[in-house]
From TrEMBL:
Protein name per Swiss-Prot or TrEMBL: MFS transporter
Alphabetical keyword list: Antibiotic resistance, Cell membrane, Membrane, Transmembrane, Transmembrane helix, Transport
Main location: membrane
Membrane topology label: Multi-pass membrane protein
Gene3D superfamilies membership: MFS general substrate transporter like domains (1.20.1250.20), Multidrug resistance protein D (1.20.1720.10)
Domain (Major facilitator superfamily (MFS) profile): residue spans on this chain: 1-485
Cellular localization per UniProt: Cell membrane
Species of provenance: Streptomyces coerulescens
PANTHER family assigned: EXPORT PROTEIN, MAJOR FACILITATOR SUPERFAMILY MULTIDRUG TRANSPORTER MFSC
Transmembrane region(s): 29-46, 67-86, 92-109, 121-142, 148-166, 178-197, 209-231, 243-264, 284-304, 316-335, 347-370, 382-401, 462-481
Length: 504
């Protein structure tokens, strides 16, 4: 939990420090954005490979190697003399983070069984959710009270503590096989594929989604992925065993992982823009109102762990996504400039309750349908899909959001083509102040009102589509998750004597 918390915090904590880093190290803003982009790309690219290697080389050693790499690269980030050194260290830090996260859930799965496993994963997942929620606040405090370098240097003593605890507490996990026979070609191909896709998703908005660069990156990713799949059918010890996808519940776990992040992470970007850009709330005020999501989400994560002792995961996950859908519909109705900002509160609460209820059993589903010796491979696949879902969701919702703003600007504003594009681009990024710099002062008030209304309408449309995706995800859970596939999951109520009983 300590090691996983570190890497989750580092995903978002640095974003608040970019201006301070630029002031200290110099360099362009584009170069410094690689402090975030580089970490995200390598973190996503190495998930599957890290998980699969851990199954063969021993999880404890791979986990501790990940912590060591993460800690040393954090030190390198903290003492970086220039922007390039910092960017390189962050890329290495992402690799270490991938080896930590890919092994965390398999280690839990190895130590615990049945309901104890479900509760351990629930506590672990809830802790990570809490860390992700408070990371921007921690980052802001460290930057205000000290300097940006401590965002990284603080990881060093915590990483050392995590390593000491690993040596004392984690059970030995001897390698099941040596390095001979490892699918190095497949592992390398998959790292390139995941890296390219993550790069395209991260840079797509700046490059242009229809630009030659983005299209080439995605097409090349697809070709290499096809080559990877063909290779995996031929090797004896594949990086990703495709036979796992013959198990309906594993397929469900994969689809739920993808669509859950598509809807929740992809949607969250735009309801935050609604509060800050359309309603004019400060970052602090937005953070406080977001507690309506985070607080019930954390609490319901633990409740969901307890519920798995009595109820099928399909029903818990289905109910969670049903509540998420209700929350999305409530926000679709509430996101309007004519409504009080507080009308969004019921939707946010439902969004938090549903996310917490669905989250814990969704995370444990994949490792509960594979033998312990394949848990790393399963965890890597699910973690990769989590990141894909978040990136693709943000991208597709971003197109919907921008289109809505563009259409409303076309209808209500008379702007030249160049001015229109500049205004819409700035508004779609939530920066109305920069959008107004492109228009004459005489119409600035009208443009502001139009853009605030358009952002509200765009966020409402995003939440409507997010709600529909949640309904579909609930359907996946209820139809594909099968009790007979669960090897070490929660105990089920005995319904053998009940003629009306239905399969989970």
């Amino acid at each position: 939990m300590i090691a996983s918390a570190l890497l989750v915090i580092d995903i978002t904590i640095v974003s608040v420090a970019l201006p301070a880093i630029q002031s200290d190290l110099g360099g362009s803003l584009a170069a410094l954005q690689w402090v975030i982009i580089g970490y995200t790309i390598t973190f996503g690219a190495f998930q599957q490979t890290a998980g699969s290697l851990s199954d063969r080389l021993g999880r404890k050693s791979m986990f501790m190697s990940g912590i060591t790499l993460f800690t040393l690269s954090s030190l390198a980030c903290g003492v970086a003399p220039n922007a390039v050194s910092l960017d390189v260290a962050r890329c290495v830090q992402g690799v270490g983070a991938a080896f930590v996260l890919a092994n965390a859930m398999p280690l839990i799965a190895q130590v615990y069984d049945g309901q104890q496993r479900n509760m351990a994963i629930a506590v672990w997942g809830t802790t990570l959710g809490a860390c992700g929620a408070v990371a921007p606040v921690i980052g802001g405090l460290l930057v205000d009270l000290t300097q940006w370098r401590y965002l990284f240097l603080i990881n060093v003593p915590i990483g050392v503590v995590a390593l000491v605890l690993c040596r004392k507490r984690l059970p030995a996990t001897p390698a099941t096989a040596g390095t001979a026979g490892i699918d190095w070609t497949g592992a390398g191909l998959l790292v390139i594929v995941l890296g390219l896709v993550n790069f395209a998703l991260t840079r797509g908005e700046d490059q242009g989604w229809a630009s030659t660069a983005t299209v080439v990156q995605l097409v090349l990713s697809a070709v290499l992925f096809l080559a990877f799949l063909l290779l995996e059918r031929r090797v004896t010890a594949p990086t990703l065993d495709l036979s796992l996808f013959r198990v309906p519940t594993f397929v469900a776990a994969a689809l739920i992982a993808f669509f859950s992040r598509f809807a929740t992470v992809g949607g969250s970007v735009y309801y935050i823009l609604y509060f800050q850009s359309s309603r004019g709330l400060s970052p602090l005020q937005t953070g406080l109102i977001m507690m309506a999501v985070f607080a019930p989400q954390l609490g319901m994560g633990l409740v969901a762990g307890k519920l798995q002792a009595k109820y099928s995961p399909s029903h818990i996950i289905g109910a969670g996504f049903g509540i998420l859908a209700l929350g999305g519909l409530a926000m679709f109705w509430a996101f309007d400039r004519d409504n009080s900002v507080w009308t969004a509160l019921p939707g946010l609460l439902l969004w938090g309750v549903g996310g917490g209820l669905a989250g814990s059993p969704s995370m444990s589903l994949a490792v509960n349908v594979v033998p312990k010796e394949r848990a790393g491979m399963a965890s890597g696949a699910i973690n990769s899909l989590f990141m894909f879902g978040a990136g693709i969701g943000a991208a597709i919702f971003g197109v919907l959001f921008r289109t809505r703003i563009s259409d409303q600007a076309d209808t209500e504003l008379e702007l030249s083509s160049g001015t229109h594009d500049a205004v819409v681009t700035s508004a779609a990024q939530g920066d109305i102040t920069r959008a107004l710099e492109n228009v004459p002062g005489a119409i600035a008030g009208q443009v502001r009102r139009t853009l605030e209304s358009a952002i509200a309408d765009g966020a409402a449309e995003v939440m409507l589509w997010a709600a529909l995706i949640c309904v579909g995800t609930a359907g996946i859970a209820l139809t594909l998750v099968r009790k007979q596939d669960l090897l070490t999951g929660a105990p089920e109520k005995d319904t053998s004597d009940d003629p009306a009983a239905e399969p989970a």
